[in-house]
Amino acid sequence: MIKRAIISTYRRFLHFVIFMMMCNVVIGQDLHFSQFYEAPLLRNPALAGLYEGDVRIQGVYRNQWNSVAFPYQTGSINAEYKFPVGKGEDFLTVGGQVLYDKAGTVQLQTVHMLPMVNFHKSLSTNKVSYLSLGFMGGMVNRRLDRSRVTTNSQYDGFYFNGSLPDGETFTGAYSYADMSVGMSFNTTLGSNDQHYVFGGLAYHHFNKPMHSFYGNIAHLPKWVASGGLKLNLDDVTYITFHGDITDQKPFREIMGGGTFSKRMGDEYASTTTVHAGMYYRYNDAIVPVLKFDVNQLSIGISYDINISALAPASLNRGGFEISLGYLAIKPKHADIILCPKF
Description:
The protein is mainly β. Helix content is about 10%, strand content about 50%.
């Protein structure tokens, strides 16, 4: 009986240590995706509208750390609508970002509701070149299950006793306003403008909201530098690169990689494009990705192969992600809205 209690206590302690190791990584960083290019507004609100079409809807779902102790489940949906403004080649993108996250034994849930607007100023009449200024701001709600919270106060000197009070006075939910701003530049390259490139810089949480159940800790501001390059090899094949450097002191995340893409089928019939590639999150994970575009719809899958300090505990297993996308264009806008084709 005593041996069983000791084993139970050891397991609780081991789970707590693993959970705290993960918290040390997450507590200073925002939620992120390995398919970060499928959630552009989380990178930079000025990356909204960098697609060929009028409407874009994207969704990403991530399931992480099932092999360790407490799985993290994260979902993102962003929607964008782009339309011309004025008499020139300027245009505006409006939309929003919804983000949901659930983690840990206390069922910590976070919901972001963030409207967005991005203005694109044309810089050239000879080629596609735009400077964009984007803003995103809204509300964030966080809550947890107070009945699942355990603390040192519930240790009776010999064992954990859940019937003892936890000694905490915080409530199980709070909300705050969150704001981000960013700029980006995109243009065509090559003699026939057949290649595309973009770069951007964003500043998130610039209003420094309170980010604690105790209401005494300000959210850490975050800088994100983003870049992308698309090289068309011929009429049906191309290579795309994406990279981000995220700085949210004292943490920094660097991730980048690319995919090789090939279009199948008749140009005037049902068309499928296959994308395959690899991304790398520095000192953390290698991420193979596979994506299929069928007409206006797309689906992508990826899996994190964990190479961080948690690799022995996780058996190199990280997070699985699946993404869905929809892209549409109105015929009357086809020759009006010039844009990069990422």
